[in-house]
Design goal:
It catalyses: Release of an N-terminal dipeptide from a peptide comprising four or more residues, with broad specificity. Also acts on dipeptidyl 2-naphthylamides. By secondary structure, this protein is mainly alpha-helical. It has helices at 4-20, 63-68, 77-80, 94-119, 161-165, 169-184, 188-193, 206-224, 239-252, 280-300, 304-315, 319-332, 360-372; strands spanning 39-43, 56-59, 72-76, 128-130, 133-134, 229-230, 235-236, 259-262, 272-275, 343-347, 350-354. Strands 1-3-2 form a 3-stranded mixed sheet. A two-stranded antiparallel sheet has the order 4-5. Strands 6-7 form a two-stranded antiparallel sheet.
Length: 373
């Protein structure tokens, strides 16, 4: 079932894309000549058959197709809004628990919308599309905003984003899209599109609270991401989590105590994220933009060496994170959210919806009856 209200908000966001994308930290030479608006919708799903249920789906994953043909996006609205019983959220300080609990779903919706609809849809790849033919001015190549000199690398005929960046590519791209969301969500005009505030900057109002929850949620996701890092292989097992850990490091390096990890116990059992909401615009957003600019330029110019060094530096799990913080993340980890899904039955010529209680028994019964039918 289509969620009309959410689809309408996403539609407004896509309509606003030509005005919003230029706010990202690279010039027009590194942006697509024309934003290819995605085919999108928000669905309320009855069931989703798979090992996990995503909040949104963006296809295809082939950047060369996204670059020239476009892409599709589906947001699963009732997955976004599915709520577990209220409980204290680890690593969020006591004074932030109320605002985080109240606005985390709205913040996640803003983040997902920006990530999927604009994040994956923006950014140009400089290509030699066929021998001697380029999609940029090869004789007068654009100037890199990082080095201040003309770019020297680009994709050769037959090369794609995936073939050049290889296994690192999916997580790198998720990080880029997440950074687009973190770069644009402090724009109060965008928050207004989602129904929050009047477009005027006000960190103490509802829109400001949604913005604060966006940044706080990302910082917490970076901490809890350590569950998905394997100390034996020293590798990440989940692309999005690796990306969020990198963004946490960006927050921590923003300066002026914008984001810090506070604790008094040696085992970090009381660790809390302190994030100064009054410095999102002055420190958080500029730090994200600086990092995002590098991610985009290295991707656009097929600069694997620079991109690899940048991303591996920011996703490297040092001794303190591995030996101190990760054990505490595991100790405070909540059980993975389980979705209990309904079934439909045909009874007397009518379709009947059968829902189940939110319990392990309800989940098992749902699966059994779905298999039976």
């Amino acid at each position: 079932m289509v969620n009309q209200e959410r689809t309408k908000a996403f539609g407004k966001l896509v309509e606003a894309a030509p005005a919003q994308i230029p706010k990202l930290p690279w010039g027009k030479d590194f942006e697509k000549d024309k934003f290819l608006a995605p085919d999108f919708t928000s669905l309320e799903i009855l069931s989703f058959a798979g090992s996990g249920i995503p909040a949104g789906i963006n296809i295809p994953n082939y950047d060369d197709i996204r670059q020239n043909e476009g892409f599709k996006n589906v947001s699963l609205g009732n997955v976004l809004s599915a709520a577990a019983p209220k409980e204290r959220i680890p690593f969020i300080r006591s004074e932030d628990q109320e605002v985080f609990e109240k606005y985390k779903d709205e913040a996640f919706e803003v983040q997902v919308g920006l990530h999927e609809l604009l994040g994956h849809g923006c950014g140009k790849l400089l290509q030699e599309t066929e021998p001697g033919k380029f999609n940029f001015d090869h004789k007068n190549p654009p100037t890199s905003p990082i080095t201040g000199t003309p770019v020297e690398t680009y994709y050769k005929p037959g090369e794609t984003w995936g073939s050049v960046f290889g296994g690192m590519g999916p997580s790198y791209e998720e990080c880029r899209a997440e950074c687009v969301a973190m770069s644009l969500c402090p724009d109060y005009g965008i928050l207004k599109i989602f129904g929050f505030g009047n477009g005027q900057e006000d960190i103490e109002g509802e829109a400001g609270s949604v913005l604060y929850a966006c940044y706080l949620q990302m910082a917490r996701a970076g901490v809890t991401a350590l569950q998905f890092w394997d100390p034996n292989s020293r590798k990440w097992g989940q692309p999005h989590m690796q990306a969020r850990f990198a963004i946490l490091k960006v927050f921590l390096e923003a300066g002026a105590d914008f984001c810090t990890l506070h604790h008094t116990q040696p085992d970090l059992s009381d660790l809390e994220i302190h994030l100064d909401k009054t410095k999102i615009q002055s420190h958080g957003r500029p730090a994200v933009n600086s990092f995002l600019q590098k991610l985009q330029i290295y991707k656009a110019t097929a600069d694997l060496a620079a991109g690899k060094k940048l991303y591996e530096d920011y996703t490297n799990v040092g001794e303190w994170y591995a030996g101190k913080l990760r054990p505490q993340v595991l100790a405070q980890a909540k059980p993975r959210k389980v979705f209990v899904q309904a079934n439909t039955f045909l009874e007397g010529g009518k379709v009947v919806l059968r829902e189940y209680e939110a319990s392990p028994e309800g989940m098992i019964r749902s699966f059994v009856e779905r298999e039976y039918i």
